[in-house]
Structures are given as structure tokens and as C-alpha cells.
């Protein structure tokens, strides 16, 4: 009898341990695979004076200023649909003030996700920079934006995924990521919204992205720290069980000029599920095809041979007139979407089964696909207007069409699709 009691008690203890260590993620999501999806990066880092975040102008500013001659953005957002907007010191040619939005406002994030739904964009990777984890004001801002994004993703049925940008990570503090992930899973319920869960899964597991591994432009390549990070996200009994998406330099396969040249990068990639090379600035419209033949085709082949998914970066254009005015020749024209579509078609033709668009809202490096203005402020700062021949939603529409072509819902075509616009 005593043995039976002891055995029963032991079983109860084991059951309690099992329950307490149960994985905290949802068992399934509305998005069980990245395959067939077009996802964009989402910065959500814009603040305005008076938005309640106590960060002043952030994301727009240069140094402590956001005024004519002091800013980092190259494109001006089209703000007529925003419920809340903020007057800036910038002026249009007629002397009227120019307005911008704050990512801190829930209504801003809701509008952006409504656009994703409206134009058929599958979802976004929410950027979370390592520096955020050491700044109370920044983490407050990021948590609020992320909470707004989770709510909007549920509302509109749009995929959401977390991307840790660890490019500038202090390697001695990498375990802060573990605590932060626990916080997001426990407090924001990031990966488990019950029946409404739209968090992106891949290979039937929640996908977590890390950007900045072995980048040659960074002080550290984050090896060997990334091995511990991957181990936690794969194997922790409560918070692990995840698939891994790694953002890496463009020459990752050959360990070329924009990498650290560390052969351990290939060992890291063999632990990943998704390989995502950063391609912004690596080519323009004229030399893209040569780059594709030399790199992307063999990148896809390597990934297929090693059982990895391949997610190439596509981007509409690039410039940083105001961020780096001494490098104004370093720009890549959009050509009314022709350059963007050339990459989309090239990636699909090369065998890519998913795409990463840089970026949804990054107006400071000229890669944004959301609605930007034709009419821009005038003065010392240089702003790039959308071409008059295209509407402000042109790149949102093209991104939605990219998803349709990727999934075979429309025929493959190297030619950019024509759009009938009601006058």
C-alpha cells in the first residue's frame, strides 16, 4: 500500500513538472509556413514631440534636431489617412507646414496593417534592436508598438514575426535576449493569441529571426554567441521549440567581402531553417541580372542541397541624402517600380519560395514601400518625391502582386504588371 502511495505521489510530481515546463507557444497559427509568403521588415521606430513616449523626435532626427537641414529621412510620408499626425518645422513650397506620424500611436500601426490586408501583403518582421533591451524608454516604445502590431495582426489576419537585430550587440550581454523573449512570450503573448494567433510559423514551429550574423561592417560577427542563442530558442523546454531565421551578408556562401570571412558561419547556417541574405545596396537595375546569375542562383542551390529555405531581400530603391550627405552618389533609383519588380521576378525565377521586402516603413534609407508623398518639403534637406506617374500606394500594390506571382495566382512575368487606376 505504501509503495502504491509513493508511486502515485511520484506520478503527480512528474505531471506537475511536465505542466510547469509546458511550451508556451500556440500549437498552431494561421500562418504555418513562410513558404509562399512575401514578408516585409517593419521598423516602427518613429517618434514625435508630444506623442507620449517622452523620446522627442526619434527616427526622423539628426542628432538632437529635426528641422530643415537636420534630418535622416529621404522620403516624406503621405499622411492624409493618419488619425493622429504631428506638425514639423518643415514647410512646403507654399509655406504650409508638413506633418508626420508617430509609430507610438496605436492608430498608426493599425493603419499600416490595414494597408497590408488591403493590398495583399502577407505580413511583417517586427524589428527589435539589441540596443532597445538596455534602454527603458526604447523598450517602452518598442513594447507598445509591438503590442499594437499584435492587436492589428489579429484584427486583419496578417502574419507577424519577431526579428532581433543583433548587428551591434554587446556579446557579453547576449543573454538579455533570453530574458526579453520570455517577457514577450509571457507578457505580450507574442506567440500565443489562442485561435487568433497569426504569429509566423515555419516547419511547424514559431519562427524567430536574428539579423547581423558575421557582417563584415560590424565589430563582432557574434560567433560563437549565436550558437548559444540558437540552442536556447530551439531547445528551452518552455520558451524554445522555435524555427530559426538568420539574416546574413550577401556573400555568405563564399565568405566574401561583406562577411567576417569566418568559416563557422556555415556551421551556424546548418542549424538554421531560413537563410536570409541582406542585398540592399549590392546592385542596381543595370547590374542586377549579373548579380543574380553569379550569386542568387547558386545561393538557392546551396540551400536546397542543405535542406534550408531561402529568403532573398528585395527592395524598391535606396538613398540616404540626408543621413549621409557626403555620400549622395550612393543611391539606387526606383524607376517607378521597374527595379523592384526585376528583383521579384529574378528571385522567383531562381527558385526562391519566399521573399523578404526591405522595408515597409524605412524612409530614412529610401527603401519604404508604404504610402509616400509626391509633394515634399523644400529647403536645405533633400527629399525624394514619388514620381508623378505612379500613385502613392504603388509599391504596396506591387508587393501584393509579388505574393500572387510567387504562389502562382497570376502568371510569372519579368514585365512589371500594368495597373488600371481610376482617375
Tell me what the structure shows.
The structure is a single chain. The chain has 423 residues and is α/β, with parallel strands linked by helices. The chain has one domain (32-406): Glycosidases (TIM Barrel), CATH 3.20.20. It has helices at residues 2-20, 106-119, 136-156, 176-187, 225-235, 264-269, 288-305, 338-350, 394-406; strands at 38-42, 86-91, 97-100, 123-129, 159-165, 201-202, 205-211, 243-248, 274-277, 309-310, 313-314, 355-357. The longest helix is centred in the middle third of the chain and has 21 residues, at 136-156.
What's the total number of strands? 12
Radius of gyration: 22 Å
Instruction: Supply the CATH class.
Output: Alpha Beta
Number of domains: 1
| Poorly predicted segments | 4-20
Strand content: 5-15%
Instruction: Tell me the span between the first and last alpha carbons.
Output: 86 Å
Counting copies of identical and different chains, the oligomeric state is: single chain
Summarize the amount of helix as a percent range.
25-40%
CATH superfamily: Glycosidases
Q: Name the structural class.
A: alpha/beta
Q: What's the shape?
A: globular
Architecture in CATH?
Alpha-Beta Barrel
The largest β sheet comes out as: 10 strands, mixed
CATH topology tier name:
TIM Barrel
- Written as H for each helix and E for each strand, in order along the chain, the element string is HEEEHEHEHEEHEHEHEEHEH
- Compute the average pLDDT: 94
Number of helices: 9
Amino acid at each position: 500500500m505504501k509503495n502504491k502511495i509513493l508511486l502515485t505521489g511520484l506520478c503527480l510530481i512528474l505531471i506537475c513538472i511536465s505542466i510547469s515546463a509546458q511550451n508556451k507557444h500556440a500549437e498552431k497559427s494561421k500562418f504555418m509556413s513562410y513558404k509562399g509568403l512575401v514578408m516585409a521588415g517593419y521598423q516602427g521606430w518613429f517618434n514625435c514631440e508630444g506623442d507620449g513616449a517622452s523620446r522627442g523626435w526619434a527616427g526622423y532626427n539628426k542628432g538632437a534636431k529635426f528641422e530643415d537641414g537636420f534630418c535622416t529621412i529621404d522620403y516624406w510620408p503621405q499622411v492624409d489617412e493618419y488619425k493622429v499626425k504631428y506638425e514639423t518645422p518643415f514647410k512646403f513650397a507654399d509655406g504650409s507646414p508638413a506633418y508626420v506620424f508617430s509609430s507610438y500611436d496605436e492608430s498608426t500601426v493599425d493603419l499600416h496593417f490595414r494597408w497590408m490586408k488591403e493590398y495583399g501583403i502577407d505580413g511583417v518582421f517586427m524589428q527589435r534592436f539589441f540596443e532597445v533591451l538596455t534602454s527603458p524608454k526604447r523598450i517602452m516604445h518598442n513594447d507598445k508598438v509591438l503590442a499594437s502590431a499584435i492587436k492589428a495582426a489579429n484584427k486583419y489576419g496578417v502574419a507577424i514575426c519577431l526579428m532581433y537585430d543583433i548587428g551591434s550587440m554587446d556579446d557579453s550581454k547576449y543573454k538579455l535576449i533570453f530574458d526579453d523573449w520570455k517577457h514577450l512570450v509571457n507578457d505580450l503573448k507574442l506567440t500565443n493569441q489562442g485561435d487568433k494567433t497569426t504569429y509566423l510559423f515555419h516547419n511547424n514551429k514559431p519562427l524567430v529571426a536574428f539579423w547581423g550574423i558575421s557582417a563584415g561592417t560590424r565589430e563582432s560577427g557574434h560567433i560563437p554567441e549565436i550558437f548559444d542563442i540558437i540552442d536556447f530558442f530551439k531547445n528551452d523546454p518552455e520558451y524554445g521549440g522555435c524555427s530559426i531565421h538568420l539574416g546574413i551578408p550577401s556573400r555568405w556562401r563564399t565568405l566574401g567581402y561583406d562577411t567576417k570571412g569566418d568559416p563557422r558561419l556555415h556551421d551556424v547556417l546548418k542549424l538554421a531553417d531560413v537563410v536570409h541574405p541582406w542585398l540592399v545596396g549590392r546592385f542596381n537595375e543595370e547590374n542586377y541580372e549579373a548579380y543574380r546569375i553569379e550569386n542568387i542562383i547558386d545561393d538557392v542551390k546551396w540551400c536546397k542541397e542543405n535542406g534550408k529555405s531561402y529568403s532573398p531581400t528585395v527592395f524598391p530603391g535606396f538613398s540616404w541624402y540626408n543621413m549621409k550627405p557626403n555620400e549622395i552618389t550612393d543611391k539606387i533609383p526606383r524607376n517607378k517600380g521597374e527595379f523592384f519588380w526585376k528583383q521579384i521576378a529574378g528571385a522567383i525565377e531562381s527558385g526562391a519560395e519566399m521573399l523578404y521586402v526591405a522595408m515597409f516603413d524605412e524612409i530614412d534609407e529610401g527603401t519604404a514601400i508604404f504610402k509616400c508623398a509626391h509633394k515634399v518639403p523644400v529647403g536645405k534637406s533633400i527629399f525624394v518625391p514619388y514620381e508623378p506617374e505612379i500613385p502613392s500606394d504603388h509599391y504596396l500594390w506591387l508587393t501584393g502582386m509579388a505574393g500572387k506571382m510567387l504562389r502562382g495566382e497570376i502568371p510569372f512575368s519579368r514585365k512589371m504588371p500594368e495597373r488600371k487606376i481610376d482617375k
